[in-house]
Amino acid sequence: APDEIFIMLSIAGASFYIWSWKIGIAVALVMTAVVASYRQTVHAYPSGGGDYEVATVNLGKTAGTTVASALLVDYVLTVAVSISSAAQYAGSAVPWIHDHRATAASLMVVLLMSMNLRGIRESGTFFAVPTYAFMVAILAMCGYGLVRLLAGTLPQVESADLTIEPQAGYEGTLATVALLFLLARAFSSGCAAL
């Protein structure tokens, strides 16, 4: 999701990257609100029925069925977005995947589906390994970068010394409205991580 924020802001030019941290904070606030509301739901309904139980108890059976249908669509879209993103990122590391992203993504969906059909315990163990491997890899990468930074051997990109020349701004409501739409689009793209 952070890359999507930068892609949206790059439409307006590199100087608009200054908005990225503000959009990131807004995404973090939304995530905090979602986590807080889910914690309240778990405490109010400890039996584990989830959103279906909450909607059925409070709003009736029709609302519960609607929520269940929406959750199914949400799960399908989550798998589609996650797998397509994984195939895109894996394609930058493995040339075969880059040339066959759709095939690789389809194989990953079949693998996920078969693991989930085996049962919760087996799929939980299977998914725990890459999750912890990812966390260890991120921590190792951050540690390596920190060591190189402290040692003074961290390379610098050629464009690091470039500056942005200020230009005369546009006066008018069209530019302001376009900026608002661009920021809203960057925010919604950043929220895809939720």
Low-confidence parts: none
Span between N and C termini?
9 Å
| Net shape | globular
- Which class of secondary structure composition applies to the elements? mainly alpha
The total number of structural domains is: 1
* Major beta-sheet overview: none
Number of strands: 0
Helices and strands in order:
Blueprint: H1 2-10, H2 20-44, H3 50-59, H4 61-91, H5 95-99, H6 101-118, H7 120-151, H8 173-190
Description:
The protein is mainly α and 194 residues long. It has one domain. 76% of the residues lie in helices and 0% in strands. The protein contains eight helices and no strands. It has helices at 2-10, 20-44, 50-59, 61-91, 95-99, 101-118, 120-151, 173-190. The radius of gyration is 22 Å and the shape is globular. The mean pLDDT is 86.
